[in-house]
Amino acid sequence: MKEEISVLIDEEKLQKRVKELAEQINKDYEGKKIHLICILKGSVFFTCELAKHIKVPVIMDFMTVSSYGDGLKSSGYINIEQDFSIDIKGRDVLVIEDIVDSGRTLAYLAHMMKKREPSSLKVCALLDKPEHRETEITVDYSGFAIDDAFIVGFGLDYAQKYRNLPYIGVLNLKED
Ligand code: IMP
Ligand code: MG
Question: pLDDT for 101-135, tens place per residue?
Fold first, then answer.
């Protein structure tokens, strides 16, 4: 199979939207300190770009989660490969996710994090594919709602490839 990528959201549009999200977050968290939890690996660039524009104090933590294997569809099993390290009890937690598809990953993570008693828990996702939702979850800050397609770039991968693309692209698989 030949892998072809077409640009869906270019760098300029991406950076502009990330700034807008940060501005909203700055307003909502005024006077507070945010405990950011980056869901690796996909959210790595998004979290860093967003964090650069957040003006309130920020603590950054990282968690590695996998659900996809090497395919185009989620395996349905959420595997926590590495848990975050700082106690979130009494903290204002903002979870940063690359993309919400079925919603199962975030539903699982929210359930797990709530047990650790943060004082608030919100979600920020760069991309949202609402068509595929299987669970009811609230995305408090959403970058772009997109149609059903397989996305790569700006952190998102296909079989671990293409994360380093500076834009959001759609992956098309074509017969050789
Ligand atoms: P969900 O649990 O079905 O909502 O899937 C969310 C996770 O699957 C995300 O954190 C991504 O890592 C991955 N994912 C979902 N859609 C895509 C995509 O189009 N490209 C790459 N990864 C995706
Ligand atoms: Mg992810």
Answer: 999 999 999 999 999 999 999 999 999 999 989 99
Contact 105, 98 (CB under 8 A): no
Pocket-testing residue among 156, 158, 172, 173, ligand 1, by greatest number of atoms within 8 A of Cβ: 156
Contacts of 13 (CB under 8 A, 6+ apart): none
Q: Is 83 a catalytic residue?
A: no
What strands, in cross-sheet order, belong to the sheet with 92-100? 79-82, 58-66, 34-40, 92-100, 120-128, 141-145
For atom 22 of ligand 1, the residue with the nearest CA is 156
pLDDT digits (tens, 9 = 90+) for 45-71: 999 999 999 999 999 999 999 876 666
Predicted pLDDT at 74: 66
166 CA to centre of ligand 1 in angstroms: 18
